[in-house]
Amino acid sequence: MTLVERDLTVAGVATRLLAGGDAQRPPVLFLHGGVPGASPFCGGAHLWGDVLERFAGDRHVLALDLPGSGGSALPDAAAPLFDRIATHVPAVIQALALGPCHLVGHDLGGLVALACALDAPALLASVTVVASAWAAPVGDGVENPVLAHPPQPLWSRASQAWALERLSYAHHHVDVSLLDACVAAAAGAPHRAAVAAMADGGFERRFAPNAGRTRGRVFAACREEGVVTPVQLVWGRQDPLTTPAHGLTLFKAIAARQREAQFDVINRAGSLVFREQPIAFHAAVAAFQDGLVGKV
Amino acid sequence: MMLQTGEMPPGREIEIAGIRTRYHDAGAGETLVFIYGGNFGSADSASSAYVWNLNLAPLASRFRVVAFDKLGQGYTDIPARDEDYTMDAVVKHAAAFIAALDLPPVHLIGHSRGGYAATRLALEQPRLVRSLTIINSGTLTPGVGTNDVVLQRPPFPSLTRDGARWVYRQYSFDPEIVTDDWMEVSFDIMSQPRYREAVRKMVDEQLGVTRFAPALRRDKRETLAWIAEGRLQRPTQVVWGADDKTALVERGVELFDLIAAHERRSSFHAINQSGHFVYREHPERFNALVTRFVDAVCAEEAGA
Q: Cβ contact (<8 Å) for A251 and B270?
C-alpha cells in the first residue's frame, strides 16, 4: 500500500482519509458505501481495496471515511443524519483545496456525490455513481430481502463477511484484510455513535426520509435545470441490490439534461464492482475522466 | 510521423486474393484494426476508412492503428464473383487482410455491420484477435432493429451528396457532426465506376435481396448461437451511442448480456447525446475508452 492514512479536522469534525498518488495530478475523491450504524457491514475507505492503487498511478487519490464511519466522527448537530454526512463532503474538498475534483461514490456515497453536484458544482469536475440503490429510481419497488437476516451479533466478523458476500457476485474478494478493516471499524467510536443515532427508529425517522428527499431533489434537477456536473454511472451486472435496469433508468433521467453522461456495466460484479473487477472498473472510470479533459 | 488530429495516415494498397485493398497504417505498439459499417452496393451512402479520421491520429500516439476498406467498399475492389456479394466474403477478406499484413493478434474495433464482421471474425479466427470492441451494431444484436424505419425513402436521389448527408444526419444525435469533408469522401466513393458496378449488382441485379440479405440472416442466426454457446472467448467491450434511433441502447444491453454470460472480461458503455457514430460524436470519450480498455486487457494478460 502506498496510500497513507491522514487524520484532520474539517469543520470541527475529526476526519480520516486515505491519500496517495501524485498531488499534482487530477484529484479523485472516493466516497464509500453503506449507511453508518445501519448497514450490516462497516463502511469506510477500506472498502475500496486495491483499486485505489490503480488510480494512484496517474491520479491524486483520496478516499474519505464518511462521518460516522471508520475514523470520521458523526457531527453532533440538529441537522438530519443524511445531511450531516452529505454536507461534510464539500467541506472536505474546500479544506483540502481539491476543487475541481472527480467524485466517485459507491452506494450511499453515490447519492452523497450527486447531492454535492447539486449543492457545490463548482467544486467538482465529474461525478461517478457506483451501484447506488440510494440514487436510482425504484417507483413502488419490491422489497429486497438480500440483507434481511444478518447473523448475530451484528457487525461481528462473521456477520460482516455474510453481508459483503450477499452483496457480491462471488465471495472471493471478501478477504482477511477487508474483514480485519471492517472489524476494526466496528470497534471505533464513530461506528458506535452512528449505531446509537440509527437505533430506536433513528434510521427510519432521521436518516431515510432525508436521503429520499435528496434523491427527489436529484430527479427534479434532472427534469428542470439538469445536473450540471458530468455524471458517469457504473453498475455491476449481477448486483443483487440494484440492477443494470435501475442504472439505465437513472442514466436516462440524468442524460436528458447533461450531455456528458455515461452508463457502464461491468460483468461478474455485484455491488462492490471495484473489488470484484478492479481492472475493468478502473479502466471505465479513468476513461470517463480522461474523455472529459478540456470539457470541464 | 506525427499526424494532426483529423488527418488520415497515407493510403497504401495490398492485394488480398486478387482484391486490391486500400488501408491506412500508422503508429506503433499494440495493433488496433478498425472495421467500419455499411456494405457494398449501398445506393444511399458510402462508408470508408475515412469515417475513423477523428480516432486514428490520437490513437496512433499510443498504438499501431490500421483502418482498411472492406471488400467492395471505399477504395477497395468490389467482389470478383456474384457468390462473393455476401457478408461471409467480407469477413473472409478482413481476416485474410489481417493475416497478410502479418499483424500480431489485434484489438478489433467494429462498428455497425463492421461490429458483426469483427465478431464473426473473432469467432472464426480467434488466433487473430486479442480483444473486441463492438460499437452500435444493430446487425449483431438479437433484438429488433429500427434502421429500416429511420432510413426509409430518403428525400433525395440515390448516389448524391445530399442523399448521403440526409442518411448520416438521420443516424446522428447532432446532425451538425455530419461534416462536408466526410460527405465529400462518401460522394467521391459513390462516383467511382466500380462502386456503381456494385450498386448495379446489389440493386439492379438484386443480389442484395437474393443473396446478401438471406445469407446474412442465416449467418447471423449461427453467429448468435455461437455466442450463446460461449464461443466468443476474447475480452469484449460493447460501446453504444445512447441516442441511436436505428440501434436503440436496449439492443446494446441485450447484446452485452449475451456476451457477458460467457466472457468475464466484458463491459458495456453507453455515451449520452450520441447517435450511431459515437466515435465521431464524442471522439475524445471514445478514444479514452479504447485506450483504457486495451491497456487493461494487456495489463491483465501480463499479470498486473
A: yes
Q: What is the pLDDT of residues A75-126, one digit of tens each?
A: 987 888 999 999 999 999 999 999 899 999 999 999 999 999 999 999 999 9
Whether the CB of B233 is below 8 Å from some CB of chain A: the reply is no
Stated pTM of the model = 0.96
CA angle B202, B207, B212 (to 5 degrees): 100
Q: Which of residues 2-21 of B touch A (CB under 8 A)?
A: none
- Does ipTM come in above 0.90? yes
The single-letter DSSP state of residue B212 is: I
Q: Is A223 on the interface with B (CB under 8 A)?
A: no
Please state, in angstroms and rounded to a whole number, the distance separating the CA atoms of residues B303 and B89.
37
Question: DSSP label at B72?
Answer: T
A282 touches chain B (CB under 8 A): yes
Interatomic CA distance for residues A58 and B9, integer angstroms = 30
Q: Using CA atoms, how far apart are residues A102 and A87, in angstroms rounded to an integer?
A: 17
Residue B303 banded pLDDT, cuts 50, 70, 90: confident
Asked if the model's pLDDT at residue B65 lies above 60, the reply is: yes
C-alpha to C-alpha distance for A177 and B161, rounded to whole angstroms: 63
| B216-B220-B221 Cα angle (round to 5) | 125
Q: Which residues contact B286 (CB under 8 A, 6 or more apart)?
A: A291, B55, B239, B271, B278, B279
Q: What are the grid coordinates assigned to A167, written together?
A: 452483496
How far does A129 lie from chain B, in Å, by closest CA? 14
Residues in contact with B208: Cβ distance below 8 Å, sequence separation at least 6, in sequence order: B41, B85, B202
Q: What is the pLDDT of residues A209-237, one digit of tens each?
A: 999 999 999 999 999 999 999 999 999 99
The Cα–Cα gap between B12 and B66 comes to 11
Inter-chain residue contact B299 with A284, CB threshold 8 Å: no
Predicted pLDDT of residue A295 = 46
Closest chain B residue to the Cα of A266, Cα to Cα = B267
pLDDT at B104: 85
3-state per-residue secondary structure call for chain A: CCCEEEEEEECCEEEEEEEEECCCCCEEEEECCCCCCCCCCCCCHHHHCCHHHHHHCCCEEEEECCCCCCCCCCCCCCCCHHHHHHCHHHHHHHHCCCCCEEEEEECHHHHHHHHHHHHCHHHEEEEEEECCCCCCCCCCCCCCCCCCCCCCCCCCHHHHHHHHHHCCCCHHHCCHHHHHHHHHHHCCHHHHHHHHHHCCCHHHHHHHHHHHHHHHHHHHHHHCCCCCCCEEEEEECCCCCCCHHHHHHHHHHHHCCCCCEEEEEECCCCCCHHHHCHHHHHHHHHHHHHHCCCCC
User: What's the distance, Cα to Cα, between the start and end of chain B in Å?
Assistant: 31
State mean pLDDT over A58-64: 97
Chain segment B156-171, per-residue pLDDT in tens: 999 999 999 999 999 9
**CB-CB contact of A42 with A65 (8 Å):** no
| Structure confidence at residue A139 as a pLDDT band (50, 70, 90) | confident
Q: How confident is the model at residue A2 (pLDDT cuts 50, 70, 90)?
A: confident
Residue A74: pLDDT over 60: yes
